[in-house]
Amino acid sequence: MNQTGKSPPPYLPQASDDVTRNIEELVDPIGPWATGRVVLTPTGGITGVRPVVDRYSVTRYSPAEWRAHNQTFLDNNCKTIDEARFVTEKTRENNTRIYKNTDKVQLENRDKLSKRASVIHRWKTELEKALHEITDEIELLEGELRRVKQSLSILTLPESISGEFLDMRCKRLEPDLVRDRVEEELVKEVALCNEVRNTLTRTRESIEYQLQELKTAKSRLEFDLTDKLDAYEIDSFCVSLTNTSPLILMRPGATRVPPEQSTSESYDHFTSEALENAEAVRQRSISLRKTLDEIFVKAVKDLRNQAMLVDKELAEKITQTEQACQQLEKELSKCLNQLSATENLIEEFRGAAKGLNEALKVAQTRLSERLYRRNVESCRDEPQYGLIQEVKTIGEELSMMSGQLQRAEETQAALVKSRSDLEREIFVKRKTLFLDKERGQLLRSYYPSAEVLSGLV
């Protein structure tokens, strides 16, 4: 009986069971129908000899042993169940702890990945901003480069205008072929154009070099930004992964550390250095554009001032030439009038001389005829003396008139030469006026404006 006062079940050991007796004593013969012997020996158990059995029973164990075996089996089973429950409880506790620690570590790493993604996003934002600024700066500087090239192309116009005008003024005739203020200012204008061209050429080279620096910095930012975009996408994808994600796999060797990996410090230094370099290059480009504006303002101002000075001197020269030409034309008119008067005077002198010659002939004829008087009639009377005085007087007057006629003829020749000189000088002045006014001012009217010289048009 157990502690509760009840008898144990019949399949468990009973109080009357004695399992210490020999099995041969416990096992009786089964019956005449059973074949074999009811003997169990250790040798039989070792060799596997089966005990005596008939059709329905085995005669190996006794009922007490059977009940003892049931008790032992039940006890072992309870022990196994208790151990299984203990293992289950411990396993569940361990699993709970492991899952808790795993979830904690996973959340911590997720937070770290999220923070890293935010850092990458911050750098990515700064890189995008810097890339946008440097792209705008490249566009502005390329515009300035086109402006400089346009200015260099336009600069050939004032150079050709000044050079052609100088060559044109070399065709002036000799009296007006002088190095005047207009020519001096034109030479200065040509020199100024060459100086401006050299300055713009150096500026163009500086812009091209600066563009190379900008494009190099932009390329570095683009490579870094591309890496940042890929890294941000990868880290964002890693943040979004969970234990139920369909893309998770076992990745053997994923824990290896590549030798070329950078550190957090070198990572920040690399990106900040790229940003600082891009900003420094952009600031140099902005400074260059400001310098370029100053160069354009000064160059255009100098060119326009010099052009105005040339136009002013040219206008003054044209006015002076016109005044000289008008004065020469007046002098030519006076010369022609005087030449006409001198020619009339010469004709008068010649007519007067002809009359005096006739009067001289008369007086000499009279004297000659009176020489034929004979004897006492050949007398030195008053008519004789009067005729002699008349011949003398007429001769003196003819000599004086001859001298005046010669002087008048010399004056006429001088007036003719003066007329020729005046006409030639007027022709020279008119040619100069044609070159300076008709052609020169027309050529100067094509001089480009300040906006065109600046490359803005």
Automatic annotation (TrEMBL):
Record localization: Cytoplasm, Cytoskeleton, Cilium axoneme
Coiled-coil segments: 124-151, 311-345
Record's keyword annotation contains Lipid biosynthesis: no
Keywords: Cell projection, Cilium, Coiled coil, Cytoplasm, Flagellum
Main location: cytoplasm
Stored InterPro entries: Tektin-like, Tektins
Listed GO biological process terms: cilium assembly; cilium movement involved in cell motility
Pfam family name, one: Tektin
Single GO cellular component term: microtubule cytoskeleton
Similarity comment: Belongs to the tektin family.
Protein name: Tektin
UniProt source species: Fopius arisanus
